[in-house]
Please model this.
Amino acid sequence: MRAFGTFTCDLHALAVRFRSCGVTSVTMASTGVCWIPTFETLEQHGFNVVLANARCANNVPGRQTDVCASVR
Model:
């Protein structure tokens, strides 16, 4: 697991990391407005980014990778 900051250079590093791991699509929960810079940066890097309602995204089966969401 790796954490990334929220500055623009950190978001670009996130995109590079995703690309190096073979990620092509990203689904994000729409909570507040904090998703916008990440969404736009990932789109600029050519990822297929999908914005989902947070309630729906939390109900997806499988491994929960959001540490903060896992604590709830």
Summary: Residues 40 and 49 are 9 Å apart (CA to CA).
